[in-house]
Amino acid sequence: SPLSLTPAALAGLGLPVDKSYLGGDCESNLAEWGRGATVATKFTPTPWRRQASDVVDAARGSCERLGVDSIDLYQLHMPDIIQPFRAFGVVDRKDEIYWDGLAEAYKSGLIRNVGVSNYGGALLERAQEHLARQGVPLVSNQIAFNLLCRREGSLATLEKGNELGVRTLAYYPLAMGLLTGKLAARNLRQAVLEKRVSPQRAADLCRYLEGGSGGTAGDIPRNGVLPLLEAVSDVAAARSKTPAQVALNWVMCKGAIPVGGASSVSQ
Questions:
Q1: In this predicted model, which residue has the larger pLDDT, 181 or 231?
Q2: pTM for this structure?
Q3: DSSP three-state, residue 165
Q4: What is the 3-state secondary structure (H, E, C) of 3-68?
Q5: Tens-digit pLDDT profile for residues 26-44
Q6: Phi, psi (5° rounding) for residue 175?
Protein backbone atom coordinates (compact mmCIF):
# COMPACT_ATOMS: atom_id res chain seq x y z
CA SER A 1 0.00 0.00 0.00
CA PRO A 2 1.16 3.64 -0.38
CA LEU A 3 1.39 3.91 3.41
CA SER A 4 3.80 0.98 3.64
CA LEU A 5 6.10 2.64 1.08
CA THR A 6 6.31 5.90 3.02
CA PRO A 7 9.39 4.98 5.14
CA ALA A 8 11.32 3.94 2.01
CA ALA A 9 10.36 7.13 0.21
CA LEU A 10 11.50 9.26 3.16
CA ALA A 11 14.79 7.37 3.30
CA GLY A 12 15.26 8.09 -0.38
CA LEU A 13 15.20 11.78 0.51
CA GLY A 14 17.92 11.19 3.10
CA LEU A 15 15.64 11.46 6.12
CA PRO A 16 16.08 9.13 9.12
CA VAL A 17 13.51 6.33 9.33
CA ASP A 18 13.00 3.21 11.39
CA LYS A 19 14.17 0.32 9.19
CA SER A 20 12.79 -2.44 11.44
CA TYR A 21 9.95 -3.03 8.96
CA LEU A 22 12.45 -4.80 6.68
CA GLY A 23 11.80 -8.05 8.54
CA GLY A 24 14.64 -8.60 11.00
CA ASP A 25 12.30 -9.33 13.88
CA CYS A 26 10.53 -12.06 11.89
CA GLU A 27 13.85 -13.75 11.19
CA SER A 28 14.91 -13.62 14.82
CA ASN A 29 11.62 -15.21 15.81
CA LEU A 30 12.05 -17.94 13.19
CA ALA A 31 15.44 -18.77 14.65
CA GLU A 32 13.61 -19.62 17.86
CA TRP A 33 10.38 -21.13 16.52
CA GLY A 34 11.50 -22.84 13.33
CA ARG A 35 14.93 -24.20 14.13
CA GLY A 36 15.81 -26.97 11.68
CA ALA A 37 13.05 -26.03 9.23
CA THR A 38 13.48 -25.08 5.59
CA VAL A 39 13.28 -21.29 5.58
CA ALA A 40 12.81 -18.68 2.87
CA THR A 41 13.37 -14.97 3.45
CA LYS A 42 13.61 -11.86 1.31
CA PHE A 43 15.62 -8.77 0.39
CA THR A 44 13.54 -5.60 0.04
CA PRO A 45 14.67 -3.14 -2.66
CA THR A 46 14.80 0.40 -1.27
CA PRO A 47 16.30 3.69 -2.47
CA TRP A 48 19.20 3.50 -0.02
CA ARG A 49 20.25 0.02 -1.14
CA ARG A 50 22.26 0.87 -4.25
CA GLN A 51 24.97 -1.78 -4.66
CA ALA A 52 25.23 -5.52 -5.18
CA SER A 53 27.09 -5.68 -1.88
CA ASP A 54 23.91 -4.47 -0.14
CA VAL A 55 22.22 -7.74 -1.13
CA VAL A 56 25.18 -9.76 0.12
CA ASP A 57 25.31 -7.84 3.40
CA ALA A 58 21.57 -8.25 3.88
CA ALA A 59 21.80 -12.00 3.22
CA ARG A 60 24.62 -12.27 5.74
CA GLY A 61 22.53 -10.39 8.31
CA SER A 62 19.59 -12.69 7.64
CA CYS A 63 21.83 -15.72 8.22
CA GLU A 64 22.92 -14.31 11.55
CA ARG A 65 19.36 -13.58 12.69
CA LEU A 66 18.13 -16.98 11.51
CA GLY A 67 21.06 -18.76 13.15
CA VAL A 68 22.09 -20.55 9.93
CA ASP A 69 25.16 -20.67 7.72
CA SER A 70 23.15 -20.59 4.49
CA ILE A 71 19.57 -19.59 3.59
CA ASP A 72 17.48 -22.22 1.80
CA LEU A 73 15.70 -19.69 -0.44
CA TYR A 74 16.55 -16.00 -0.71
CA GLN A 75 14.16 -13.85 -2.75
CA LEU A 76 13.91 -10.29 -3.99
CA HIS A 77 10.71 -9.02 -2.40
CA MET A 78 9.60 -7.05 -5.47
CA PRO A 79 10.94 -5.17 -8.49
CA ASP A 80 12.70 -1.89 -7.75
CA ILE A 81 9.50 0.15 -7.82
CA ILE A 82 10.08 2.50 -4.89
CA GLN A 83 11.10 5.63 -6.80
CA PRO A 84 10.71 8.74 -4.61
CA PHE A 85 11.53 11.16 -7.44
CA ARG A 86 9.36 9.58 -10.13
CA ALA A 87 7.02 12.60 -10.04
CA PHE A 88 9.98 14.76 -11.07
CA GLY A 89 10.90 12.50 -13.98
CA VAL A 90 13.80 10.81 -12.19
CA VAL A 91 13.73 7.00 -12.14
CA ASP A 92 16.72 4.96 -10.97
CA ARG A 93 15.94 1.25 -11.38
CA LYS A 94 18.51 -1.07 -9.78
CA ASP A 95 17.04 -4.48 -10.65
CA GLU A 96 20.17 -5.71 -12.42
CA ILE A 97 22.34 -4.57 -9.52
CA TYR A 98 20.18 -6.65 -7.16
CA TRP A 99 20.43 -9.66 -9.48
CA ASP A 100 24.22 -9.31 -9.36
CA GLY A 101 23.98 -9.24 -5.56
CA LEU A 102 21.94 -12.44 -5.55
CA ALA A 103 24.57 -14.09 -7.75
CA GLU A 104 27.36 -13.03 -5.40
CA ALA A 105 25.49 -14.29 -2.36
CA TYR A 106 24.77 -17.59 -4.12
CA LYS A 107 28.37 -18.12 -5.18
CA SER A 108 29.65 -17.26 -1.70
CA GLY A 109 27.41 -19.94 -0.17
CA LEU A 110 25.24 -17.54 1.81
CA ILE A 111 22.14 -18.72 -0.08
CA ARG A 112 21.30 -22.12 -1.57
CA ASN A 113 18.53 -21.05 -3.94
CA VAL A 114 17.65 -17.77 -5.66
CA GLY A 115 14.11 -16.47 -6.10
CA VAL A 116 12.16 -13.31 -6.88
CA SER A 117 8.70 -12.09 -5.90
CA ASN A 118 5.96 -10.12 -7.62
CA TYR A 119 7.68 -10.26 -11.01
CA GLY A 120 5.68 -10.20 -14.23
CA GLY A 121 6.60 -12.47 -17.12
CA ALA A 122 8.86 -10.03 -19.01
CA LEU A 123 10.94 -9.08 -15.97
CA LEU A 124 11.08 -12.71 -14.86
CA GLU A 125 12.62 -13.68 -18.18
CA ARG A 126 15.14 -10.84 -17.96
CA ALA A 127 16.13 -11.87 -14.45
CA GLN A 128 16.56 -15.51 -15.41
CA GLU A 129 18.72 -14.63 -18.42
CA HIS A 130 20.85 -12.23 -16.36
CA LEU A 131 21.46 -14.81 -13.63
CA ALA A 132 22.03 -17.64 -16.11
CA ARG A 133 24.90 -15.71 -17.69
CA GLN A 134 26.58 -15.93 -14.30
CA GLY A 135 25.79 -19.60 -13.85
CA VAL A 136 23.09 -18.99 -11.23
CA PRO A 137 19.70 -20.74 -11.56
CA LEU A 138 16.52 -18.81 -10.78
CA VAL A 139 14.23 -21.28 -9.06
CA SER A 140 11.08 -19.39 -8.05
CA ASN A 141 8.80 -16.40 -8.44
CA GLN A 142 6.32 -15.72 -5.62
CA ILE A 143 3.11 -14.02 -6.78
CA ALA A 144 -0.50 -13.62 -5.71
CA PHE A 145 -2.27 -16.46 -7.49
CA ASN A 146 -5.71 -17.94 -6.90
CA LEU A 147 -9.05 -18.60 -8.58
CA LEU A 148 -10.16 -15.06 -7.85
CA CYS A 149 -7.29 -13.16 -9.50
CA ARG A 150 -6.40 -15.56 -12.29
CA ARG A 151 -7.38 -13.06 -15.02
CA GLU A 152 -5.24 -10.17 -13.77
CA GLY A 153 -1.98 -11.26 -15.36
CA SER A 154 -1.01 -13.84 -12.77
CA LEU A 155 -1.93 -16.82 -14.94
CA ALA A 156 0.19 -15.47 -17.81
CA THR A 157 3.07 -14.96 -15.37
CA LEU A 158 2.74 -18.52 -14.10
CA GLU A 159 2.73 -19.85 -17.66
CA LYS A 160 5.89 -17.87 -18.45
CA GLY A 161 7.48 -19.34 -15.33
CA ASN A 162 6.52 -22.86 -16.43
CA GLU A 163 8.06 -22.14 -19.83
CA LEU A 164 11.30 -20.94 -18.21
CA GLY A 165 11.44 -23.69 -15.61
CA VAL A 166 10.89 -21.21 -12.76
CA ARG A 167 8.45 -22.50 -10.15
CA THR A 168 5.63 -20.23 -9.03
CA LEU A 169 5.02 -19.86 -5.30
CA ALA A 170 1.40 -18.76 -4.87
CA TYR A 171 0.64 -16.47 -1.96
CA TYR A 172 -3.01 -15.69 -1.17
CA PRO A 173 -4.00 -19.08 -2.66
CA LEU A 174 -7.31 -18.83 -0.75
CA ALA A 175 -7.73 -15.10 -1.51
CA MET A 176 -7.47 -14.03 2.14
CA GLY A 177 -9.99 -16.71 3.09
CA LEU A 178 -12.62 -15.71 0.53
CA LEU A 179 -12.34 -19.05 -1.27
CA THR A 180 -12.96 -21.09 1.87
CA GLY A 181 -16.65 -20.17 1.80
CA LYS A 182 -16.46 -19.43 5.52
CA LEU A 183 -16.36 -15.64 5.44
CA ALA A 184 -19.56 -13.65 5.88
CA ALA A 185 -19.89 -9.86 5.76
CA ARG A 186 -21.92 -9.80 8.98
CA ASN A 187 -19.23 -11.72 10.86
CA LEU A 188 -16.50 -9.48 9.49
CA ARG A 189 -18.26 -6.34 10.69
CA GLN A 190 -18.67 -7.92 14.12
CA ALA A 191 -14.98 -8.79 14.14
CA VAL A 192 -14.18 -5.11 13.55
CA LEU A 193 -16.27 -4.12 16.56
CA GLU A 194 -14.38 -6.69 18.62
CA LYS A 195 -11.08 -5.40 17.20
CA ARG A 196 -10.16 -8.82 15.78
CA VAL A 197 -9.92 -7.51 12.20
CA SER A 198 -8.78 -4.12 10.95
CA PRO A 199 -11.55 -1.90 9.51
CA GLN A 200 -9.76 -1.55 6.16
CA ARG A 201 -9.26 -5.29 5.71
CA ALA A 202 -12.87 -6.02 6.69
CA ALA A 203 -14.18 -3.35 4.32
CA ASP A 204 -12.22 -4.80 1.40
CA LEU A 205 -13.37 -8.34 2.14
CA CYS A 206 -16.99 -7.18 2.46
CA ARG A 207 -16.76 -5.51 -0.94
CA TYR A 208 -15.56 -8.78 -2.43
CA LEU A 209 -18.46 -10.60 -0.77
CA GLU A 210 -21.21 -8.08 -1.52
CA GLY A 211 -19.94 -5.90 -4.35
CA GLY A 212 -19.09 -2.21 -4.30
CA SER A 213 -16.21 0.12 -5.06
CA GLY A 214 -13.28 1.68 -3.25
CA GLY A 215 -10.33 0.44 -1.23
CA THR A 216 -7.83 -2.04 -2.63
CA ALA A 217 -10.64 -4.24 -3.97
CA GLY A 218 -11.51 -1.84 -6.78
CA ASP A 219 -14.92 -2.09 -8.43
CA ILE A 220 -16.69 -5.35 -7.60
CA PRO A 221 -20.04 -6.29 -9.24
CA ARG A 222 -23.15 -6.75 -7.13
CA ASN A 223 -23.09 -10.06 -5.20
CA GLY A 224 -19.31 -9.98 -5.38
CA VAL A 225 -17.61 -13.36 -5.63
CA LEU A 226 -20.77 -15.31 -4.78
CA PRO A 227 -21.07 -16.92 -8.27
CA LEU A 228 -17.48 -18.17 -8.04
CA LEU A 229 -18.00 -19.45 -4.49
CA GLU A 230 -21.13 -21.30 -5.56
CA ALA A 231 -19.24 -23.00 -8.40
CA VAL A 232 -16.37 -23.99 -6.10
CA SER A 233 -18.81 -25.28 -3.49
CA ASP A 234 -20.61 -27.39 -6.11
CA VAL A 235 -17.33 -28.97 -7.21
CA ALA A 236 -16.36 -29.59 -3.58
CA ALA A 237 -19.70 -31.22 -2.71
CA ALA A 238 -19.53 -33.53 -5.73
CA ARG A 239 -16.14 -34.79 -4.59
CA SER A 240 -16.64 -34.80 -0.81
CA LYS A 241 -14.03 -32.07 -0.38
CA THR A 242 -14.06 -28.59 1.13
CA PRO A 243 -14.06 -25.40 -0.99
CA ALA A 244 -10.58 -24.65 0.35
CA GLN A 245 -9.28 -28.01 -0.88
CA VAL A 246 -10.74 -27.36 -4.33
CA ALA A 247 -9.19 -23.89 -4.47
CA LEU A 248 -5.77 -25.17 -3.40
CA ASN A 249 -5.96 -28.10 -5.82
CA TRP A 250 -6.68 -25.70 -8.68
CA VAL A 251 -3.52 -23.75 -7.83
CA MET A 252 -1.44 -26.94 -7.74
CA CYS A 253 -2.93 -28.26 -10.99
CA LYS A 254 -1.76 -25.07 -12.70
CA GLY A 255 1.78 -25.92 -11.62
CA ALA A 256 2.11 -23.52 -8.67
CA ILE A 257 3.02 -24.26 -5.07
CA PRO A 258 0.43 -22.73 -2.71
CA VAL A 259 1.78 -20.79 0.26
CA GLY A 260 -1.17 -20.72 2.62
CA GLY A 261 -1.42 -18.68 5.80
CA ALA A 262 -2.38 -20.43 9.04
CA SER A 263 -4.05 -18.55 11.86
CA SER A 264 -4.58 -21.52 14.19
CA VAL A 265 -2.80 -24.72 15.21
CA SER A 266 -5.44 -26.88 13.52
CA GLN A 267 -5.00 -25.06 10.22
A1: 231
A2: 0.84
A3: coil
A4: HHHHHHHHHHCCCCCCHHHHCHHHHHHHHHHCCCCCCEEEECCCCCCCCHHHHHHHHHHHHHHHCC
A5: 888 888 888 888 989 999 9
A6: 50, 55
